[in-house]
Write a structure and sequence with these properties.
With 383 residues, the chain is α+β, with helices and mostly antiparallel strands. It contains 15 helices and twelve strands. Strands 4-7-8-6-9-5-3-11-1-12 form a ten-stranded mixed β-sheet. Strands 2-10 form a two-stranded antiparallel ribbon.
Length: 383
């Protein structure tokens, strides 16, 4: 019997204890992997090529305040600006208030929207049909699949933010690199139903000529409206997302504290299990040493056993985390915040590395002490 077989048999000797240990580590790695995935998505991952060229111009104080629509022409006239399109959040109710029926709805300009978002793909005839139908709309392909919509279907949305209801016809279905979970309609439809909002919009999506132009364009836009009655704040899409997240509180500190607590708790569970297991096998260690096993071999046996259990829990935990993140990204309540978030290979490898380190750290001290114990004292031990 080689050392690997001994490790495998020792790891499964007490099946109940081993199973509970693996599940405990798996739960810890589940939380840790989810937290690392969120951290990576919010603070590390870079925006796509198209997104890196885009800016969002909103009211300096809050997005709750609308901007004059004529700002759009002034923004377009700035050097380095390729396109600019208005957007307004509608936030109506489809069918009922159940979470699965919630999705984003935006009023915009059909003539220029897809020029600002070139990554959104849609057949030219559907785009043309949307542009020529004031009561038309387009929807994300994943959203259409979810609700069983097809081109030509009519959608009724009850206004909750605005005192107007939308009776729209689907004129096109677009495909996005990451699910958008959104419906887009002609903003003029909203203005006709609620004339008070005519000439005002929520914000502007601005497409710069290049990523290098983005900082300068942002500064020039805000400088142009600095002394206006409605000043602006212009930032990249990534910065806008982080500002939105910051409204929830100190997310960075929260994620770090959760990760630290998870690692510490998992280490305690693993260390306690390994200390109990090694202490119970003190006489066995003495027998192994009497048979010729060196201190290094005994140390390697126990450490390998701990790492094996930890990695088993790590694999189980990261697999469960993959399912949980997928659910979060498609959850009606969380889709707007976690849309496009997914577990990457580096995150999985980092989680497994943490699991292996936890296994090593939890077993090294008791295994080292056991390997140094005198054969005679070990054989006399009664535990």
């Amino acid at each position: 019997m080689n050392l690997l077989n001994i490790v495998a048999k020792n790891a499964s000797r007490n099946q109940r204890r081993s199973t509970l240990t693996v599940l405990s580590i798996a739960f810890g790695l589940l939380l840790l992997t989810v937290m690392m995935t969120i951290w990576r998505a919010f603070y590390i991952d870079r925006a796509g090529e198209e997104s890196s060229h885009r800016l969002i111009t909103r009211h300096k104080v809050s997005m709750a305040f609308l901007l004059p629509a004529f700002y759009r022409d002034k923004i377009r006239s700035l050097p380095g600006v390729k396109h600019a399109v208005n957007e307004t959040w509608f936030g109506g109710q489809y069918k009922d208030d159940r979470p699965e029926n919630f999705f984003a709805q935006f009023g915009t300009d059909p003539q220029e929207y897809l020029q600002v978002f070139p990554e959104f793909q849609m057949p030219p005839d559907q785009l043309l049909a949307w542009q020529h139908d004031r009561a038309g709309c387009i929807v994300d392909s994943d959203l259409a699949k979810k609700h069983g919509w097809k081109v030509g279907d009519r959608i009724y949305i009850k206004g909750t933010v605005w005192p107007v209801d939308l009776d729209l016809t689907i004129r096109g279905i677009f495909t996005a690199p990451t699910p958008a979970e959104a419906l887009l309609f002609n903003n003029e439809y909203l203005e006709e139903g609620f004339p008070t909002v005519k000439g005002r919009v929520g914000w502007f999506e601005v497409l710069a000529d290049s990523a290098a132009d983005v900082p300068r364009v942002a500064e020039e836009i805000d400088a142009q409206f600095r002394n206006a009655t409605r000043p602006t704040k212009t930032e990249t899409e990534k910065a806008f997302q982080l500002d939105y997240i910051a409204m929830l509180g100190n997310v960075k500190a929260f994620l770090l504290s959760i990760c630290g607590a998870v690692v510490f708790a998992t280490l305690l569970v693993s260390a306690n299990t390994m200390a109990m297991s090694i202490r119970e096998r003190t006489r066995e260690v003495a027998v192994l040493k009497a048979l010729g096993f060196t201190r290094g071999a005994v140390l390697w046996l126990f450490v390998s056993e701990a790492i094996t259990l930890a990695l088993a829990g790590g694999v189980l935990g990261t697999f469960a985390a993959w399912g949980l993140v997928s659910v979060m990204a498609h959850s009606p309540q969380l889709a707007l915040l976690f849309i496009g978030v997914r577990i990457t290979l580096p995150t999985v490898l980092a989680g497994l590395m943490v699991a292996a380190i936890l296994g090593l750290a939890s077993a090294f001290v008791p295994a080292y002490n056991a390997s140094r114990k005198n054969i005679v004292d070990g054989l006399r031990y009664v535990g």
